[in-house]
Amino acid sequence: SFTFGQRGSQPGFFNHPLDLTLNNTEDLLFITDHSNDRVQVFTAGGQFVRIFENFADVPLKLQGPVGIYYTADDHLLISYFNTVCVLVFEEDGSFVSAIEGTQQGKNRFRGPCGVVMLSSGQIVISDPNSSKLIVF
Predict the structure, then answer these.
(1) What is the C-alpha separation between 130 and 117, in angstroms, rounded?
(2) Among candidates 55, 71, 75, which has minimal Cα distance to 63?
(3) What is the pLDDT of residue 93?
């Protein structure tokens, strides 16, 4: 048993770590660091590797990553509660696409949190602000 990280904004420190996921080889942990507006990457043994933040190629100002999920095809799904979107990234942090919650109709979301991908390839997002789960 061991712990790692402490409160702060420096690399390797956290300010509200909310969710984590392992990559498919189970050697890297991806952790949403909500109040620092970033995702941090660590080895499974707790050694700091890198940070995802300030994405120049993302067309939105990102705030507050919440949920994170590593897919079978080596992508990261990251939900942003305050920005109202779920973004898809490569493992290295390269932006792939966005699912914005501003759509009209039943698929609109207002505060995405949990995010997973089903074996069918559909993405399920939990949205406590609208009291529903949305499937894309």
Answers:
(1) 20
(2) 55
(3) 85
